[in-house]
Amino acid sequence: MPREFQRGHKTRISDLTTGTDLYVGVQISGPGLTFDISCFGLDADERLSDDRYFVFFNQPKTPEESVQLLGAQAGDTESFRVTLDRIPSQIRRLSFTATLDGAGQMSQIAPGYLRIVAGGEEVARYSFDGSEFSTERAVMLGDFYFKDVWRFAAVGQGFDGGLDALLRNFGGEVAEEEAPAAAPQPQSGAAPGFAPPAFGAPAAPAPAPVPQQPQPAPQGFAPPPAPPVHAAPTIVAPMTPPGGVHVPPPPAPTAYGQPGQPGQQAPYGQPPQQTYGQPGAPSAPPPPGYGQPQAPQGPTPPPGYGQPTPPPGYGQPTPPPGYGQQPAFGQVPGQQSYGVPQGAPQAGAGVAAALQQFKETPTGQRWTQQTRKLIRVDLGVGGQPVLARQGSMVLYQGKVDFSYKGAGFAGRIVGNATGQEMQLMRCTGQGQVFLAEDSTMLHPIELQGDGICVSAENVLAFDESLQYEVRRIEGHGIPGGALFTMQFTGTGTIVVKTHGTPVVLPVTPTTFADCNAVVAWSAAAQVVVSSQVRMRRNAYPGDTGESVNLQFRAAPGNFIVVQPYEV
């Protein structure tokens, strides 16, 4: 019986199967609709940094064949073979997508699914239909991603812009097609040995590989663009003056070119009687060395003229005179040097360019950290509400409803008595909510059935699917005889806030932490309040301020999180 997934659900692949040779089948259809189903191999920044790992009909496999396109079989519209232990280390995510080829919207699709098969047995299935989408033309159905181990996530996130928007989200771009794309080669043979039989048909071994002709370059797709250096392409100094203008004879050289460029007048400060040609010649040919390989004859030419050493500033790391810089010696202020890239002064100028580094980070995930102090939650992914600290919303998009989340009479009593009362609001709807508080640093922590202890003061938001309760920490020698914290368990994400960058340490038998600086620790760790208060010490004036600490004891693998700040 396969495990059923809903949008936003995640799990370890090892929880589904112990194998690494997987079959991924996608079934998607709609009246009058045509789909292109692809797999993107992304790096750690979720970018398509190598277009050889974009697997689609015109590029059916990766270089080491860790991902292979198998075609339609066993009732699936498209299928892939994924060998996890052959995926190179630079690929950290495989995103399986579907885009519309032609008119239509994803809201028109019939019920479909993405399924995972291992050893001939279906182990996971994510079912979807048109009600989960609206005007999208491209959707990310599911991801394999590496986070300590390989995991699977049911995404179900779409883009209205179709394939173009999908590629830009992954850092690629769409080039204009010069010729129609080659038709996909029909797949022959039955499903591979690791796929289920095709609706009762006996399983057959995978067909022997057929030598492939060199595949044409993918039509319409281009690798990710390199980071822009200039706002306009670099202009190489031409061999002839622009517009076909000829260099006039001396002794009246024109203003063609600036100092340091071939075919120019004498540098600033040069005696005016010295010209390009021979002294006293009635007429002069083009300047020696201009557009010719040999060196000039006669008197020594002006410094830098016709020499193999490039003129200062031309093609060297030193930036050309431009915006925000003093003009070169001898150059008229405000006059652009010929051959200098015209777009260089404007690089990074303008409001749009200045704000580019602060643009929103789209990932298709439920929780996305925009900056170290700002986080975004997509309520449409996962379909479950979020509980957040009251007043922590700084921006939201879409149809989002905020309501008061009461703790009940008993909850208020416990919260007031223990100091672990959380003033929460409930966020529901379809949209994105941006959360922050007091410019503290935010850290999303994903729980996969495990638990974590966090003080209520350090909790910003969490999925409503998580269970939480007040936990008592026993101790002696302190007022009240105990401390309290919040324990969160289940499957979901909790956002912890800290003052400054925290440090995570493993728990050892001699691990102690200040109770005012510790932020969180693993729920399996045993915590004891350690007091260093002694009657003899109290007989003397003064206090160290370190009278009460927390001692942690646990098996290897447990941790504590401490911030450089005491509450």
TrEMBL record:
Residues 204-230, 282-322 have a biased composition (Pro residues). Residues 177-346 are annotated as: Disordered. Residues 180-203, 231-246, 254-281 have a biased composition (Low complexity). PANTHER family: CAMP-BINDING PROTEIN 1-RELATED (PTHR32097), TELLURITE RESISTANCE PROTEIN (PTHR32097:SF3). InterPro entries: AIM24, AIM24_sf, Stress/Tellurium_Resist, TerD, Trp_RNA-bd_attenuator-like_dom. This is TerD family protein. Residues 3-170 form the TerD domain. It comes from the Bacteria.
